[in-house]
Design a protein that fits this description.
With 685 residues, the protein is mostly beta strands. It is 15% helix and 39% strand. The strands form 12 sheets. A 4-stranded antiparallel beta sheet has the order 1-2-5-4, with no helix packed on it.
Length: 685
Amino acid sequence: MSAQRDPELDDLFEDDPELRQLAQLIRARPHPAASVEPSPNFHSVLKQRLMREAWERVSQPQLPWYRRALAPQPLAWAGAAVGALLIVFAAWSFAATPGGTHSTVKVSSTLSGNTLLLSFNQPMDTSSVQHAVHIVPATEVTYNWADNQHLAVTALHNLTPNTQYVVTIEKTARTQDGQPVAHTPPVQFVTSPPPPTPTPTPSSSPSSPPTPPITGLHDVAPVGAPAARWSPDGTKIYIVGPSGQLGAWPTQGGASTSVQPDGVSLVAVALDGAVAYFRDGQITYGPVTVTGVQPIALGFGQSGLVFATASDVEASDQHKLATFAEQATSADISPAGDRLVYRSSSGNLHLVNLTSGKDSAVGPSAGLGDWSPDGTKYAYQTDAGVFVADTSSATSSRLLEFPGLTGLSWSHGNQLLLSTSSALSLYTPGDPAGARKLAADQFERARAPSWAPTAGGYFAFRRGGELWIGKVSGAQLSIGPPGTAGPNQDDVVNGFMTARQNQQADQAGAYLDQAGKDAFSSAGLSLTYAGTGSTLRYYTLLSQSGKVVVRLVLTKGNAQSVVDETLTLKSSGGKLLIDGVSDRPRTSFGAGPEIVRVTVAGDQVQVFFDSDLDQSTVQGSVTIKGANGQAVSSQANYDPRSKAVLLPAGGLSSGATYEIAVGAGLRDTPNGRQAVPYQLQFLGP
């Protein structure tokens, strides 16, 4: 018998002619229920189920159609759906262009930083597509068409980390010849997790040491764009001047030794004191020359010179050691030459293992930084302060909250030199006093600090167009790995949650004391959710001393379920462990703007959301309430760049219990969805 061909049906089962023939046969046969008009909800639910089943089948090895038809799962849904197949497929065929000349519109996508690149398989009506793009969580975007088949959708503000985004193209989209687009599958992706926000670890030290004095401060020479580099013994520093002239200047003052008269744009110094530089399209390193390249960083490995370009890392013979996942704008090769970090054009920091070639995205950064003394960590700057990437796991954590950072350097004595537009500061990891300003008028407008590689306290920095050198008297002089302070509570929680994500019950249990194990058991909470078929992601909503609120998001197919866990921690046998848990399911998750993080500082509470908010709805919709339920702070400011509502906290009592209250009046933009009411308890700063 013959059956009318359905182009969309043919495309859906293009790799399975037997199943396509069976579907066409079912579609062509009359059915007693064909005259019954199902509800719109029935259409939607059945379509989603059939599409999900189809995609699951495509991803599995093919079997003969009769074996698939007799399998338990197909039999289970086929009995309920066979009568409706005609209706659903007919609806799909009606959506096609009259005459059947219109082919199915296919969309492929690529995420690059804050930009989603959409590629259509045929020319589109660009205006109708832009009005049809729908993003959840709500995100204000700009559109840029390379041509009428390639669209870049860029978020005006950074995408929220560790968040599932769903991008759909509504049926109002049209092709260039005016035909409707139907049944375009949604684009779904989860952004990378953010670095954890640790709580400062209390110290038993009654006071911090005084700020060390600065001696021998003097300007050395005019400096150009390339970074200055120290000799291995710290007795001289190599400076590239404004015209590209490369010279070696004594640390304690004196005339320079000229190395190259002009045109140098990059320089590096090996452990044996040999100098490599890039000039006029050529890298020169002693007798070694490399031409026809455009390096952005020079370094040295066991086999000699290595260099990074915008797309890869190469040895001196131009053998590729690694290829970058994103376009690099700047890079930093480790002292041992076995690893490299680079900052991409989208602002992400990447860690590359030059032995395996593996490229791992670490997270957003505001610039590069410096390697730890033992090379196992990399400190870098963000808008919020100093973060540290672990080179073995490619994970990142906050080391120090320090806004306005313009540069940093990590000494061999395990101290960080930090620059802002107004000062230089010294920070020793673990110091409860935080960073301490170094007193000197010349440190205004200081940037790009750099410790000398030897134990002596010498450092250099830029100020205006000059390079300056000084010495920190009393700086830690020990050469070796950083101190091994115990993990803080956020390290414990992140280790615990990572083990749960990986379904490692034994490792997760190691973070619980006996009270914690009893609490999980009595609450009926799962450590690993093994066997549920769900994937687990999490993020920290709130972290205060002794208490961390973690949101667990379980995803199965397109469905998400959410529970907020409050974990309490205490020291047991000199070790910080989780000793209590309580949970609260989050109903209607994702129906409107959601809180993703709360930070409590001395004079301000910052409430970060996953969506761009309608600023006119913020006031009165996000408040701080006291124990009696009365608002104690309703004044709210909104920072659209960080999607944060800022609430004054100067009048809050230290240690008292308050709650962040989000009301239904809060709306996102441009979708206009109302927030589902929510409360989150916290302690006054």
